[in-house]
Automatic annotation (TrEMBL):
Residues 242-376 form the NACHT domain. PANTHER family: NACHT, LRR AND CARD DOMAINS-CONTAINING (PTHR24106). Pfam families: FISNA (PF14484), LRR_6 (PF13516), NACHT (PF05729), NLRC4_HD2 (PF17776), PRY (PF13765), SPRY (PF00622), WHD_NOD2 (PF17779). This is B30.2/SPRY domain-containing protein. Residues 856-1057 form the B30.2/SPRY domain. The keyword S-adenosyl-L-methionine does not apply. It is found in: Cytoplasm. One of its GO terms (cellular component) is cytoplasm.
Length: 1057
């Protein structure tokens, strides 16, 4: 590289020149007259080209010419002038070299202090390093010289490793490997949603269930982290992070995440304190199962640049090892019997090498990142993992970002996003990046090939279209056909039959990765299989020229299940053979037996398979596969009988997950009648949970879980304030961020159920309000077993008014000692914990992991150990200065009756002059409960003191303004509630009696207000039990005054109980 460049007079000195330190001196030299007839202004470029030949021999003609000119230079004054000029140049040269050496020595010092090196002037720096190393050895500084030698080799090696990784990871093949057109990773990459927390425990649920659980969590306020932050210390964490485990279902983006992490490092964007990142996959390591390596040899094997650099020790480097795909490992990792190995140069089996590396016996300074599907996470002991993260795939904004990147036309992208949102199944599956790719591939093809028309709404439709797209690709790209030609040839049909057989047989065995022998068993030609690149992922072990072994897998587990279902369907309609059972079946029995088989699977492993099998039974879907299916299967009657059978199964006592999958099956069969029925009830406000059948309860759960509205707050009283409703709606509670279960007559049975929710891996619950339930100490003890679970994420717990004593506090304290890192707020007010009970809860405050910073224990005392809301009873007193003159007081001002005749009350500014209303005297600020008896038509209300008293506008009328809230009680219409001019009709049922009501019939209601909590509840009182009518949830900004109102009916009355 030219060190002086083309610097012209007047330009600032260049950093890359040999002559740039003193600008004035440079100018002077440039303006000196040259000898003979040379130009008066000579650039240093020409000076250098003229004089360098004197000192450096070269065979080029240019240098020979300089030598010749020099020898012919006349003697005398011109020689002296020439010498003076040469002396001046070399003074400058000396200054530049000294400055360069000083600068480079500082950089070398930084390298020895483990700092990053600048890439500029790399070759010059490497040469100078060798000189420095030589001088250090002359100075007997052998240790520093060795370190410099290692580091200098490391710098060169790092550059080469980064270059290789950039080349390897800068392009990706979406969804598939070695097929289609490569895409720049940085262009297509969409940020994934990664959360911190959880454990490496086994989760055997079908991954679609896990995806559905994740879909309900994806938009919540969880602790999300970016991939470049994986090894950074977060607030509250003191120990450094050595090993990170990242979990995620198949196709969620774990591998691409590791590639992006590595590429960003290789391109110098992030993690520049790291000297080397060495990414491995377990698929690569499986091939070395029988061989022996030392850790150094293993790195040399996969990254030969390190061997070329002579690096035989990695202790002085900051290193990250990435091990992708633990679930695909065929290396039996034994963390109990493996021999301890500390020497990275000692050979052993690859499995023992990995075990010692993960244990921290080998290279404890290195950092490890392991990715896995959830089912394999427990292969590594929890004590070997410092942080567990989970890749949730795309949240809703990230899905949109992906499709907007894929479809550049805004209108088209918006239409596709709207379509996906309209189908719950598609929307859930699009949390998986590879499914987004499948969806984009299908919709892109459909939008090209036709205008308008229906887009696929179900999973089965989407996968059928994807299969057809790939058949078209094969026909056009490989067979030279036209897009209008039939897609399915005899050869392609045979190939699909073989792939389906492979998918089904290996699915039954739980195999998701296949080898050549598996393909041969199913009659698959490997070369032909590779042609079906869109359906089949082919991963060759020849990326570095090391292996010839081939490993195969489907692009996603769901596609393997689809092909397996297609194989079972094809076999049955062509030969009548039911591959799932030995007995021959009619079409009805075939599908019903498939339903039964799926329901028998404890972990839902056949859930998605069943959806596809039933979806393939629809004639509309069979028409899409025309050419592959040579004859149709079931008819409309068979489909209707299958729908009815599924509805009967939903009516049985199934787990929530199984019921939900059966609703997805009904969607695949285009039947939404159960869901529509419940949706109509919900929208009309006529949902009476007391009359719901089991199937309707299941439909309600499905609707609530499938709702696009966030389950931020779930209030059980909206549906039924009962223990039965809680047990029925438990899956919804588990999916909610906050559950309000206060005053719902819950018992020990509910506590046991809620404990299972708290200890569930898929629970989203962070805020639980159980106040005013008679849980007692026994219930709290059951609840505490969930609180101590490592999966419990509860941050706020209210047990106010739950009849808890010191014994219950002891259970809570024990649970929090086991799991102190989550709960932040605990409300035990209106209980009787005693001094010792509170002390136990606060005893661990010095523990650095302790997060409980708010414990509310007042008011407290034995008087609060009264069951139910009556412990908050308060005695109301009517404010006679507010009573309208049409209202008559009696029974020591405890009863109010509407009268046409005006009463002789004195004038007072607080009196309601037109509206037939009154207020009580004392404002309420805490928890209060009262009961009243009423007849005919009355308003039972609470109001701020400032409500208007003059006239009959809405500003004066209880419930019809922002100052007041009312329960409207009517012998004819039943109950409704009203606030701020908004009336909500509740029920026509006034009591459990079915006999007709006379104008003189009396009814009793109860009112409970918790001013600090912002809740106002109304109840029917029947035989001393409370039946919930409605609860307002708001924020009260002033004291509340109870009030009563009447509407021109002479029989109307209210009596304070």
């Amino acid at each position: 590289m030219d060190q002086c460049g083309d610097t012209q007079e007047g330009d600032p000195p260049s950093k890359n020149t040999l002559c740039g330190e003193d600008e004035s001196q440079s100018k002077a030299q440039r303006n000196q007259p040259g000898p003979g007839d040379e130009p008066s202004c000579v650039s240093f470029r020409s000076d250098r080209s003229k004089y360098l030949g004197i000192f450096f021999k070269d065979n080029s003609s240019g240098v020979e010419q300089v030598d010749q000119q020099s020898s012919e230079t006349p003697s005398g004054p011109s020689v002296q002038q020439h010498q003076t000029q040469l002396d001046s140049i070399f003074l400058l040269l000396e200054d530049n070299i000294v400055t360069f050496v000083k600068t480079e020595l500082k950089k070398i010092q930084k390298i020895l202090s483990q700092k990053d090196e600048d890439e500029e002037q790399r070759s010059s720096r490497e040469s100078l390093m060798k000189i420095t190393e030589n001088f250090l050895r002359r100075m007997k500084q052998e240790e520093l010289a060795d370190r410099l030698q290692s580091r200098s080799s490391g710098v060169v090696c790092q550059y080469k490793v980064q270059s290789g990784l950039k080349k390897k990871f800068q392009c990706v093949f979406e969804g598939i490997s070695k097929a289609g057109n490569p895409t720049l990773l940085n262009e297509i990459y969409t940020e994934l949603y990664i959360t911190e927390g959880g454990t490496g425990e086994l989760n055997e649920e079908h991954e679609v269930r896990q995806i559905e659980a994740a879909s309900r969590k994806a938009d919540r306020a969880e602790t999300s982290i970016r991939q470049e932050e994986l090894f950074q210390l977060t607030a509250g964490r003191q120990e450094p992070i050595r090993t990170v485990m990242t979990k995620g279902v198949a196709g969620i983006g774990k591998t691409v995440l590791t590639q992006k992490f590595t590429l960003d490092w290789a391109e110098g964007k992030v993690n520049q304190n790291i000297h080397f990142i060495f990414p491995f996959t377990f698929r690569e390591l499986n091939v070395l199962k029988e061989e022996k390596f030392s850790l150094v040899e293993l790195v040399h094997h996969f990254f030969p640049e390190t061997k070329e650099a002579g690096i035989c020790s990695f202790e002085d480097f900051q290193i990250i090892f990435i091990f992708d795909g633990l679930d695909e490992s065929r290396l039996p990792l034994d963390f109990h019997k493996t021999q301890i190995l500390n020497d990275p140069r000692k050979s052993t089996s690859v499995r023992d090498l990995l075990t010692n590396l993960i244990r921290g016996n080998l290279l404890p300074s290195a950092r490890l990142w392991i990715t896995t599907r959830p089912a394999a996470a427990n292969q590594i002991p929890a004590e070997c993992v410092d942080m567990v993260t989970e890749v949730r795939g795309f949240n809703d904004p990230q899905k949109e970002e992906y499709f907007r990147k894929r479809f550049k036309e805004k209108k088209q992208a918006s239409g596709i996003i709207s379509h996906i949102k309209s189908s719950r199944s598609l929307h859930i599956m699009c949390h998986i990046p590879v499914f987004c790719w499948i969806t984009a591939t299908v919709l892109e093809d459909l939008l090209k090939s036709r205008e308008g028309g229906e887009l696929p709404k179900s999973l089965t439709e989407m996968f059928i279209h994807f299969l057809v797209v790939q058949a078209k690709v094969k026909k056009v790209k490989y067979d030279g056909g036209a897009e209008t030609d039939p897609h399915w040839s005899p050869e392609s049909r045979k190939m699909m039959e073989s792939l389906g057989k492979l998918a089904f047989e290996r699915l039954q065995k739980g195999n998701l990765i296949f080898y050549e022998s598996d393909l041969t068993e199913c009659g698959i030609d490997i070369r032909a299989a590779s042609v079906y690149s869109g359906v089949f992922t082919q991963i060759f072990r020849e990326e570095r020229g090391l292996y010839q072994d081939k490993v195969f897998c489907f692009i996603h587990l769901s596609f393997q299940e689809f092909l397996a279902a297609l194989h079972v369907h094809l076999t049955f309609i062509t030969s009548g053979v039911n591959l799932m059972e030995e007995e021959q079946k009619t079409p009805n029995q075939f599908y019903q037996s498939a339903v039964n088989k799926a329901l028998q699977s404890p972990n839902g492993h056949l859930d998605l398979f069943l959806r596809f099998l039933l979806g393939l039974s629809l004639q509309t879907n069979q028409r899409l596969l025309q050419g592959l299916l040579t004859q149709s299967g079931s008819n409309l009657q068979t489909n209707q009988e299958t729908v009815q059978y599924i509805k009967e199964k939903i009516s049985e006592n199934l787990s929530a997950e199984k019921s939900i999958n059966l609703f997805h099956c009904l969607n695949e069969l285009n039947d939404g009648s159960l869901v529509e029925e419940i949706q109509q009830f919900l929208s009309s406000g006529r949902l009476s949970t007391e009359k719901l059948s089991p199937a309707q309860w299941s439909a309600l759960v499905f609707i609530l879980l499938s709702s696009e509205e966030d389950l931020e707050v779930f209030d059980l009283k909206k549906y039924s304030a009962s223990e039965e409703a809680l047990l029925r709606l438990l899956p919804v509670i588990k999916a909610s961020n906050k559950a309000i279960l206060s005053g719902c007559k819950l018992s020990e049975r509910s506590c046991a159920a809620l404990s299972s929710v708290l200890s569930s891996q898929s629970s989203s619950l962070t805020d639980l309000d159980l106040s005013n339930n008679n849980l007692q100490d026994s219930g709290v003890k059951l609840l505490s077993s969930g609180l101590q679970s490592p999966h419990c994420e509860l941050e706020t717990l209210s047990l106010s008014g739950c009849l808890i004593t010191e014994e219950g506090c002891a259970s809570l304290a024990s649970a929090l000692n086991s799991n102190p890192s989550r709960l932040r707020e605990l409300d035990l007010s209106y209980n009787h914990p005693g001094e010792d009970g509170v002390k136990r809860l606060l005893a661990q405050r010095e523990d650095p992991q302790w997060r409980l910073d708010t414990v509310k224990a007042e008011p407290a005392g034995i008087q609060w150990l009264i069951p139910g809301l009556r412990k908050y009873s308060c005695r109301l007193t009517i404010d006679t200065n507010t009573v309208n003159r049409n209202l008559k007081l009696s029974d020591n001002n405890r009863k109010v009756t509407f009268e046409e005749k005006l009463q002789s009350y004195s004038d007072h500014p607080d009196r309601f002059d037109v509206c037939h209303q009154l207020l009580c005297r004392d404002g309420l600020t805490g928890r209060c409960y009262w009961e009243v008896e009423w007849t005919d038509l009355v308003y039972i209300s609470v109001s701020y003191r400032g409500i208007s008293r003059k006239g009959d506008s809405h500003d004066c009328m209880f419930g019809w303004n922002s100052q007041s809230w009312s329960l409207i009680c009517s012998r004819v219409r039943g109950y409704s509630v009203c606030h701020n001019n908004n009336e909500i009709y509740i029920s026509s049922s006034l009591s459990s009696s079915s006999s007709p009501y006379s104008p003189s019939s009396t009814f009793r209601v109860a009112v409970y207000v918790d001013c600090p909590a912002g809740t106002l509840s109304f109840f029917k009182v029947s035989s001393d039990s409370l039946i919930h009518i409605y609860t307002f949830n708001t924020t009260f900004t002033e004291p509340l005054y109870p009030g009563f109102g009447f509407r021109f009916l002479t029989c109307s009355s209210v009596a304070l109980c």
